[in-house]
Amino acid sequence: MSSTASGKNGTWRNWGGNVSARPARQVAPASVEELAAAVRRAAEDGLKVKAVGTGHSFTSIAATDGVLIRPHLLTGIRGIDRASMTVTVEAGTPLKRLNTALAREGLSLTNMGDIMEQTVSGATSTGTHGTGRESASIAAQIKGLELVTADGSVLTCSEKENPEVFAAARIGLGALGVVTAITFAVEPLFLLTAREEPMPFERVLAEFDQLWAENEHFEFYWFPHTGSTNTKRNNRSAGPEQPVGPLAGWFEDEFLSNGVFQVAQWAGRAVPAGIPAIARVSSRALSARTYTDIPYKVFTSPRRVRFVEMEYAVPREALTETLRELRTMVDRSGLRVSFPVEVRTAPADDIALSTASGRDSAYIAVHMFRGTPYQAYFTAAERIFTAYEGRPHWGKVHTRDAEYFSRVYPRFGEFTELRNRLDPERLFQNDYVRRVLGA
Questions:
Q1: N or C: which end of the chain has fewer CB within 10 A?
Q2: What is the DSSP secondary-structure string of 39-92?
Q3: How far apart are CA 347 and CA 334, in angstroms?
Q4: How far apart, in whole angstroms, are the C-alpha atoms of residue 363 and residue 342?
Q5: What pTM does this model have?
Q6: Which residues are within 8 A (CB) of 10 and not within 5 positions of it... i.e. 6 or more apart?
Q7: pLDDT tens per residue, range 177-194
Q8: What are phi and psi of 251, to 5 degrees?
Q9: Residue 435: is it exposed, middle or buried by C-beta count within 10 angstroms (0-12/13-18/19+)?
């Protein structure tokens, strides 16, 4: 078995650069059988097991000093079932590869997050989501999954087979076993028209319910220290396709959103006092545009500027209040925030540890440029979010623990009971899992 490391002397690091680990060994299984054997061997050697995707989580959810399983050889589409409109993929398949393969087959996922570098299992296990009025997270589109459990056996689950495992394992935090394959619901490829336009902060808040109700996918970015936002509405379209031209695309998505933004971040890190002025310029840099393309090209965009992020789901009806408090806090604190605050929504779903479990949700994400101190900002923001029983994204910075989660997740006990049954010896535990789920 080959093993890889994304760091010196076997050290593993995440994308944001804020988490590192030194596993005892790293394995890259080429089959489900090899993976199951690696799990059994780890148990015999008294080592913990963690699977890691592309390291896009900002928490130490995948860190281990035991056996680190890298899934890059477990990739590709196992099969497409056009009768049931599903696709089954190996767990290590990057979302990018899944999306392009589906598009070639004339198929698409219903909804997507805004980046597609992650593996399908990493994205779903942490509850990654986009924005949607009716369509929910990537995990909510799962119709079946295959899991290697602590005793090395392979469990298949769906609504019909092992339904109680299915109910929880779609967002399993890596605590129930190692996901080896996922079956997603798909639909015939469709077109989305995106309308991006600047809008004053106060207007977005005043009209938020209407903007949410009138659009299939609505989101906006607010630039702290300014009264400006950039809004994005994505709706299904009869066509024709009118993609962003290569030159305009390069200018807006690469030059402005990544290149100039990167320089602005460097400038802000060097001279924090200049951040409000930089924010005013940034908020005006992106002008209105409309384009029509296939879903993944509209939902996702390149993110080359590295950052650290905290994101909380609050009840949707509490969104405007929460944002006003966040704005007041930033204005009074003397903090200098150079990254926009991202706001999205999701309908309630039925997954035990989904941030939208049992309630219509709005997501508020705060970011800081990688390498700048983020603790003061995130701590103050978290205080506001938790006052509304906010639920943090499992892959983003937060300080909550099992005691808190047992209060804000109605089905938390159901998940921990299942974990007791599937992993009584805590083979899949690490410090993060112990903190969020309890020992």
A1: C
A2: HHHHHHTT--EEE--S---SSSTT--SSEEE--TTS-SEEEEETTTTEEEEETT
A3: 35
A4: 8
A5: 0.93
A6: 22, 23, 26
A7: 999 999 999 999 999 999
A8: -65, -45
A9: middle
